[in-house]
Design a protein that fits this description.
- The chain is 75% helix and 0% strand.
- It is elongated and about 80 Å long.
- It is an all-alpha fold and 273 residues long.
- It folds into two domains: 193 residues, Tetratricopeptide repeat domain (Serine Threonine Protein Phosphatase 5, Tetratricopeptide repeat), CATH 1.25.40; 71 residues, Up-down Bundle (Methane Monooxygenase Hydroxylase, Chain G, domain 1).
Length: 273
């Protein structure tokens, strides 16, 4: 999902100088058209020329103080500059001019997350989800992240939001894995294992997920099951064709699984001793 839709030739192709020159010509022809100044500000932002972008936005505001795009785009520029309180104020103004503007809400959510206002950010993400016709998984994931960061008392709410996303979008891997981590924080091991199975059942390659399953079982104190899952992962790796088996990532996973099995054997021996 784009952060903010900006109309006009600012989003066209070509070099920076050519794009600015094209807008210069249009502005000379119609200097009172505020949206043209916003379009040129978009080009300046794309080239990280923040002060030029703000200057054009100031001119656009002088021409049309009621144009929501001006303040919405100002919020984007100020976010890039790290001027977070000012970015938030600009986006509040934009949303007062155009309530429910999804791109502006999404930018404000990210501003408020950066301001360490997770509950306010989560509220904006929720509004994005409610208003966007096809929100995709990103706002669900971002809302869950800010709620999880807000503390343990918000973990159940964060998990419920991911489940809302799963019901709307289906069992997407990113949603399931984010929910799995929250299940583990909440010490819901069986639920986490169910999510892992549901998320990975269609993968032909299972060795990574078998190791992840073993790690979860270790956390739950189910050492025998964890050992068996590590062993199965090692066997799957050994059965791979040589060009896959000897890749750096697979060899690292194999070494990790072997070391974890040795630790489990050692712990089991200590327990018997």
């Amino acid at each position: 999902m784009a952060l903010l839709s900006v109309p006009g030739p600012a989003l066209g192709h070509g070099g920076h100088a050519d794009r600015v020159a094209a807008l210069d010509t249009q502005i000379e022809t119609a200097p009172g058209e505020a949206i043209l100044w916003v379009d040129r500000a978009a080009i300046h932002l794309d080239h990280a020329d923040f002060e030029a972008a703000l200057s054009d936005l100031d001119r656009a505001a002088e021409l049309d103080a009621g144009l929501a795009e001006v303040e919405a785009f100002r919020g984007r520029v100020l976010l890039r500059l790290g001027r977070l309180p000012q970015a938030d104020a600009a986006l509040v103004r934009a949303l007062s001019l155009r309530p429910g503007d999804v791109p502006a809400l999404l930018v404000r959510a990210r501003v408020r997350e950066a301001l360490r206002q997770p509950i306010a950010a989560a509220a904006d993400y929720s509004e994005v989800i409610a208003l966007a016709p096809r929100p995709g998984p990103e706002p669900y994931l971002e809302r869950a992240r800010v709620l999880a960061a807000a503390g343990a008392r918000h973990w159940v709410e964060a998990l419920a939001g991911l489940e809302q996303g799963r019901e709307r979008l289906g069992s997407l891997l990113a949603l399931e894995l984010a929910a799995l981590e929250l299940e583990l924080r909440l010490e819901r091991v069986e639920a986490a294992l169910q999510r892992l199975e549901r998320a990975t059942t269609h993968f032909a390659r299972q060795e990574h997920w078998l190791v992840r399953r073993a790690e979860i079982l270790v956390r739950a104190g189910r050492s025998d099951e964890a050992y068996a899952s590590y062993a199965k992962a090692l066997q799957r790796i050994e059965d791979l064709p040589a060009h896959l088996r000897h890749s750096a990532a697979v060899e690292s996973l194999y070494t990790q699984a072997q070391a974890s099995m040795q630790q489990l054997r050692a712990a089991s021996g200590e327990g018997r001793g």
